[in-house]
């Protein structure tokens, strides 16, 4: 079995209680924090920046923080997020003038680097920079908003990405983001993903008054992953 990681997207959390929300969802058995950064330029939405990342660290969050930059340009923000406590920084190649340089800037800042591919973006970039990539993130929705439905074409694309990664012989994680739920996570994992971003599936689960609602949905996700035959 692969080393599966569940990364709750805080885009779907209650921002009035963000620190508490993140602590609770990690205590429920998730592995890392997915941190969506949108600039109302590269994508039609505006979210959060390095100060919020830093605030989570000051709140006591020790888990890895997976910063997904949906911004253009990219390079200026990388050192700020690295200083704020990011563990991983991923970006969309279309948003960088020099993809190789941006990957190196991320690594030079002390973070692990990754490329993000939108539903209609081919994986061709990987041919030239796979030696500088620690993570490949495939979008299974169009970036910009949470709560969208899973785009089925992500399944064959996952298989293609898994083949590229395996043939490279490198330790590269394969992450999926968008519409991941209990009823499809097994199929997604079988196609090759090992890291799963889940926002509304986790933070909107059950009743807000139920203190165990995160535990219940995370256990259900884990149970489905345990059924995967690789």
Would you give an account of this structure?
The protein is of the alpha/beta class and 230 residues long. The chain has a single domain, classed as TIM Barrel (Alpha-Beta Barrel), CATH 3.20.20. Helix content is 34%, strand content 18%. It is built from nine helices and eight strands. It has helices spanning 18-27, 50-58, 78-84, 99-108, 126-129, 154-168, 185-190, 200-203, 213-225; strands at 5-8, 32-38, 64-70, 88-91, 112-117, 135-139, 173-177, 195-198. It has an eight-stranded parallel beta sheet with strand order 1-8-7-6-5-4-3-2. α2 links the parallel β2 (32-38) and β3. α2 (50-58) runs parallel beside α3. The longest helix has 15 residues, at 154-168. It is globular and about 50 Å long. The mean pLDDT is 95. Its EC number is 5.1.3.1. One of its GO terms (cellular component) is cytoplasm. InterPro entries: Aldolase_TIM, Ribul_P_3_epim, Ribul_P_3_epim-like, RibuloseP-bd_barrel.
